[in-house]
């Protein structure tokens, strides 16, 4: 592998979280030790084009410099040429002999839903984070809830609704939701990240509007009963041996932690560590590990819960397999409070990616290999 770890960072993406991904990539590039890593940027544009840069020779100070253009040099270093790569597959295969491990930081669809992980598997490249199945299940709220139910994890009541059914019999869907879940309830696209397309409905009129909005983003919708309680979150780190961070609490200024609150502040307060009893923190940590194992997680995840202080009930909300990863995002801040700084967290994730790849290579691919 040489003296330096050759780390490729894939960022951007055809996603509503494009800008968040750029900031994440920039944060990682600034945080890693240049004596330990050689960085190769791979930028996925908003229209889905792929632009691969040659290794970066020095620190990139401005996030704008990461918007690579075909045929131009990355502005921070004359040595950083850029080549246009026409297809996703060839881009990754071109990286095969040039990088040791990939850190994909594209959020949302085509980034954390198993699709890019599948391409990395085809290219035979080690990568940070969960595999194809865990990424897909973690991204799809409907499947995730089914897996959590199978694992015996307590969660609020929910209903899955297909857009085709909604278009065919909206009134029947609304009546079912009212009878089984009641108001208020939350309506979500099954496969969107970062609270995009999510609404809280307090009556029938709002429910119709919420269903119509969610259906613009996905063909599969999830409707959840209202969860009374404090929003608490924890980070999980590891492959087979897991550690957890401290617990943090989200105190939203709005009625729920929506996209505006998550990425534009909007008065939301993050309390780290959360002011909750140790016994509750221990239950959260244990349940988070169970959720991580249930989806076959690897590398990292942030697991979100509702804790009802009055009844002492704990409900799992969701698992995020590619959580926000700037130094000011919840996941790194939770681990910083647990004594693991941002740069060390990156080191650990890269090590876990390489370990997981080596573990996978133990598998035989043909029966003849047994002879």
Topology (elements, then pairings):
Layout: E1 5-12, H1 18-31, E2 37-44, E3 50-53, E4 82-85, H2 88-95, E5 101-104, H3 115-123, H4 132-139, H5 141-150, E6 158-162, H6 163-168, H7 170-180, E7 185-189, E8 199-201, H8 204-215, E9 220-225, E10 230-238, E11 242-251, H9 259-264, E12 269-271, H10 278-294, E13 299-308, E14 313-320, H11 330-337, H12 342-360
Parallel strand pairs: 1-2, 1-5
Antiparallel strand pairs: 2-3, 3-4, 6-9, 7-8, 7-9, 10-11, 10-13, 11-12, 13-14
Summarize the structure.
With 371 residues, the chain is α+β, with helices and mostly antiparallel strands. It is 35% helix and 23% strand. It has three domains: 5-127, Rossmann fold (3-Layer(aba) Sandwich); 157-225, Dna Ligase, domain 1 (2-Layer Sandwich); 230-359, D-amino Acid Aminotransferase, Chain A, domain 1.
Mind explaining what this structure looks like?
Cell wall formation. It is found in: Cytoplasm. Its main location: cytoplasm. The active site is at residues 17, 194, 329. It comes from Brevibacillus fluminis. Residues 73-87 and 261-265 have low confidence and may be disordered. The chain is built from 12 helices and 14 strands. The protein is α+β, with helices and mostly antiparallel strands and 371 residues long. The longest helix is centred in the last third of the chain and has 19 residues, at 342-360. α2 (88-95) packs across α3. It has helices spanning 18-31, 88-95, 115-123, 132-139, 141-150, 163-168, 170-180, 204-215, 259-264, 278-294, 330-337, 342-360; strands at residues 5-12, 37-44, 50-53, 82-85, 101-104, 158-162, 185-189, 199-201, 220-225, 230-238, 242-251, 269-271, 299-308, 313-320. The strands form 3 sheets. The protein has a 5-stranded mixed β-sheet, sandwiched between helices. The chain has 3 domains: 5-127, 3-Layer(aba) Sandwich (Rossmann fold); 157-225, Dna Ligase, domain 1 (2-Layer Sandwich); 230-359, 2-Layer Sandwich (D-amino Acid Aminotransferase, Chain A, domain 1). The radius of gyration is 21 Å and the shape is globular.
């Amino acid at each position: 592998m040489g003296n330096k770890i050759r780390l490729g960072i894939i960022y951007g993406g055809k996603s509503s979280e494009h800008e968040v991904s750029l900031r994440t990539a920039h944060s990682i590039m600034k945080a890693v030790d240049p004596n330990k890593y050689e960085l190769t940027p791979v930028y996925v544009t908003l229209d889905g084009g792929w632009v691969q840069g040659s290794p970066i020779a020095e620190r990139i100070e401005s996030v704008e410099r990461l918007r690579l253009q075909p045929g131009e040099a990355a502005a921070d270093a004359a040595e950083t040429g850029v080549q246009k790569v026409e297809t996703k597959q060839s881009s990754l295969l071109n990286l095969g002999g040039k990088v040791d491990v990939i850190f994909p930081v594209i959020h949302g669809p085509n980034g954390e839903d198993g699709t890019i992980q599948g391409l990395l598997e085809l290219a035979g490249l080690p990568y940070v984070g969960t595999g194809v199945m865990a990424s897909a299940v973690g991204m799809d709220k409907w499947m995730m809830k089914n897996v959590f139910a199978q694992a015996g994890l307590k969660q609020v009541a929910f209903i899955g609704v297909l857009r085709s059914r909604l278009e065919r019999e909206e009134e029947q869907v609304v009546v079912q939701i009212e009878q089984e879940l009641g108001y208020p309830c939350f309506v979500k696209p099954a496969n969107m990240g970062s609270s995009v397309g999510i609404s809280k409905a307090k009556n029938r009129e709002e429910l119709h509007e919420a269903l119509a909005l969610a259906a613009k983003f996905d063909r599969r919708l999830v409707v959840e009963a209202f969860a009374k309680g404090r929003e608490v979150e924890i980070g999980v780190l590891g492959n087979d041996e897991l550690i957890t961070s401290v617990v943090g609490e989200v105190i939203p200024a709005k009625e729920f932690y929506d996209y505006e609150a998550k990425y534009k502040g909007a008065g939301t307060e993050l309390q780290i560590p959360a002011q909750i009893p140790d016994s509750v923190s221990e239950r959260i940590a244990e349940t988070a590990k169970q959720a991580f194992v249930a989806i076959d997680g690897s590398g990292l995840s942030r697991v979100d819960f509702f804790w009802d202080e009055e009844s002492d009930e704990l409900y799992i909300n969701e698992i995020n397999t590619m959580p926000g990863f700037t130094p000011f995002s919840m996941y790194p801040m939770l681990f910083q409070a647990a004594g693991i700084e941002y740069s060390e967290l990156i080191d650990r994730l890269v090590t876990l990616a390489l370990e997981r790849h080596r573990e996978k290579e133990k598998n035989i691919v043909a029966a003849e290999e047994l002879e």
